[in-house]
Every structure is written in structure tokens, then in C-alpha cells.
Amino acid sequence: MLFVPNLLWTKRKPENYDAFAANENRVLLVFERVGEVIVTGAALVFSDFNLRLPVTAFSVWLFASLVLMILYEIYWIRYFRSRRTMRDFYRGLLGIPVAGATLPVFAFALLAVYGGNPVLLGGALILGVGHIGIHFAHAKEARKADEE
Predict the structure, then answer these.
(1) How far apart (Å, rounded) are the C-alpha atoms in residues 53 and 17?
(2) How crowded is residue 7: how many other Cβ atoms within 10 Å of its Cβ?
(3) Residue 54, preceding bond cis, omega within 30 degrees?
(4) Which of 16, 82, 106, 118 could be a cystine partner for 88, CB 3.0 to 4.6 Å?
(5) What is the pTM of this model?
């Protein structure tokens, strides 16, 4: 659910995306990359994220994570069906700002809570600082460019 849309995106980037990427804050970029490594590694190495039976009230964390990932897929479908502008890429979804960056980070954080996994939670927090920070800055630049 996470990697396929991102792989498709590499061939369908918004117009002028590379110009925005050239201005990325290097500190946020380090946070993003470190967070990506930790989150990906934790998701692959640990097995505490599977559905546990019987389903309990605590399972709401897993289901909430799944709902966020479904919203993430809806975000991508909407983006790929759009004109693929910077404005399309940074649109919110259901009141969630910069949905393409925010939804997966929060989904991983909820998954970490469900799995009781501090490594994944720490990775999600680090990723969130970098990934969401970078994309909020890009969204701000895109709005400014639209106003000019």
C-alpha cells in the first residue's frame, strides 16, 4: 500500500517538482531518510503488527492504521487522475493537510502503538518531522507560486 504508489509516482511527478525538491531543508531531509530506514526496517523485522485474536478494544489502533492507509490509497488515486500539478500533489483529504505525507506517518505511528513497538514509533516520529516538514514547506511554496 505504501511502495506501489510511490514507485508509480516516480514516472508521474508534478510539474516543476524537481525545482521544489532542490530547495529542501537538508536537516529535514536527514530526518526523513533516517525515519524511512527505521520505519521500513522495523516493519520488516518485527512481527507484532499482525491481527491478534481475539479482537479486543485495543485492536482499534490496528483498524485505525488500516483506515489511514486506505485514505492514503484514495489520495493517490485522486492524484493520478488529476492534472498532476503541485497543487494536486499537496491537496488535503477530508481535512487532513498534505495528506500524501501525513497519512502514512500517522498510520505507522498507530501501527506502532498497536504493536507496542517503540522502534517503529520512534522511526515514525523521526520520519514525520522530516517528511511532513518537507512537504508542508513544498505546499507553502506551491501556494506562493500560484499567487504570483
Answers:
(1) 45
(2) 9
(3) yes
(4) 82
(5) 0.86
